[in-house]
Amino acid sequence: MQKIFNSNIFDQPAFWMLVSGLFALSITLSAVFGISAWLLLAGILFILSLILLVKRPFLLLCLLIIARMSLDYSAEYFTFTFFDISISLSQLLGIGVAILGIINIITHRKALWNFQLSVPFLILFLWGSFTLTYSLASYSTLYELLRLFDLFALGFLAYTAIQKTADFKKLLLTFFISGILPTAFAIYQWVLGIGIQDEAFSVPRIFGTFSHPNVFSLYLFSLIVFACLYFLVFVRAPHPNQIQTNLSPKELLLLGLLGVLALMLFFTYARVAWIALFVFAFLLSLFRFRKLLIPLIILPLVLFTFSQNFQERVLESFTRRPDSSIVWRQNLWHDVVTNSIQDGNFWLGSGMNTFPLVSENLRGISFGSNDPHNDFVKFFVEGGALGLAVYVLYLISISFILLKNYFHNREQPPLHLAFFILILFFFTLELASLSDNVFKNTPVLWLFFIALSGLLALAQKEKLTFISDKK
Question: Looking at CB atoms within 10 Å, which of 64, 246, 287, 400 has the fewest?
Fold first, then answer.
């Protein structure tokens, strides 16, 4: 199949003339036959994606990342209906990713045996498939299995597409590019005072192009983590543990990016992301930059003193008001877990991705969201004791992969540092999962598993050279 695309067709004017013709044809067909132009456009884009998968898989991966991070907001305006089933653009993209993933797995099936993430994903997939036999909502379980497969497929695509250090650097830059539109939307919302209003909080919370401020906040946190990784591994590679004052233009640009991301994260007013960022920065400073520990500890005190909104969000965490989101979470966990045990679902649960249905049947919709906001509670309700054990095993297997590669690459300091940052990132995400829906936060998991897979690919190369960007 590769021989078909030996010529560099993407540089040929005739190829792009053909693409333009297909777009024009889609519009014509939609007008004449009443076919959805968006559906035809999706088909054309899928054909182009197949070509990219064969010809330039790394470019395809980058384009998928950029596209995915801006699609959640479109769910309000664009949906497709197939056999009375409504599908959003992000879900349609997920179906496309699954098909492309199957093709890529078949094409690189020999590399699959060396892909370390196969084990944790196989654990979850087998368990989820087992719950399909008794799930309260088979469609929801199937959709979750598709989402899991997409994560695995994207990780494997990164594993097979990333061949050298320069590719991984471009991957990180793609992460930052993917944040341009969401951050621009967030700035627009902040300036105009547009956002989601909580009953217990008076200030609108920005959400960018995502469905909720908490989802957006953890995405911003992820970008901050990868900006730190890029800065420390590629810009300050010769002296990663030293704090220098002579900053180059590239370093100033990265620090400016970190500042914007941190500011937007602050205005999401998401306490879970605030805590995750503080814990990550504290641990990174503790092990690498201890001179930053004192300023890092002082910063929350300054914010608490001079920012009334920050003070209000912090104090709410220590109150027991009925409208407190923390009290609401605790009541939700208690009610659903108790009901699950009483219904005889202690051992096997109700099926993967059925927590919202169980909660809605028990509490209705008057109490707000029926999402679990705790991944451990989620897996217990959906899988009982077995599901909780499977989730813990999944976390242990990923932790083992991270630690194994961290210690194995001690003679490669930049790679060693990159795995260390991902270890801190994974730890803080699991900390956040105690009070948020991290396992369902698809954008964040996209970034994590793609980056981890890219590092695993580089770790297996016989000759690996990290070159600093600093001149």
Answer: 246
What is the DSSP secondary structure assignment for residue 462, as one 8-state letter?
S
In angstroms, the CA 428 to CA 422 distance is 10
Encode burial over 229-252: b for 16+ CB neighbours within 10 A, e otherwise. bbbbbbbbbeebeeeeeeeeeebe
Q: What is the pLDDT of residue 368?
A: 77
User: Within the chain, which residues score under 70 in pLDDT?
Assistant: 1-42, 74-85, 199-200, 237-247, 323, 462-471
The C-alpha atoms of residue 236 and residue 239 are separated, in whole angstroms, by 6
Q: Are 367 and 421 in contact (CB under 8 A)?
A: no
Q: What token pair was written down for 346? A: 């202690």
**Cα 266 off chain centre by:** 19
How high is the pLDDT of residue 2? 43
- In angstroms, the CA 264 to CA 337 distance is 35
Close Cβ partners of 408 (under 8 Å, ≥ 6 residues apart) = 459
Distance between CA 239 and CA 283 in Å, rounded?
19
Alpha helices in 108-232 (DSSP H): 109-112, 118-131, 138-161, 165-178, 180-192, 213-230
**Cα-Cα-Cα-Cα dihedral sign, residues 235, 240, 243, 246:** negative
Specify whether the CB–CB gap between 250 and 470 falls below 8 A: yes
Q: How many CB atoms lie within 10 A of CB 375?
A: 23
CB atoms near residue 105 (< 10 Å)? 18
84, β-bridge pairs: none
DSSP for 339-392, please give it.
HHHHTT-TTT-S-TT-HHHHHHHHH-STTS----S-HHHHHHHHHHHHHHHHHH
What would the pLDDT profile of 180-219 be if each residue is shown by its tens digit?
A: 999 999 999 999 999 888 766 778 999 999 989 999 999 9
pTM for this entry: 0.90
> And the tokens for 411?
């003679």
Report which of 234, 158, 224, 231 is spatially closest to residue 414, judged by C-alpha positions: 234
Other beta carbons within 10 Å of 102: 12
Query: What local confidence, expressed as pLDDT, does residue 364 receive?
Result: 87
Specify the DSSP class assigned to residue 233. Answer: I
- Considering all CA atoms of the chain, what is the largest pairwise distance in Å, rounded to the nearest integer? 68
Q: What is the pLDDT of residue 432?
A: 97
Rounded Cα distance between 330 and 87, Å, is 32
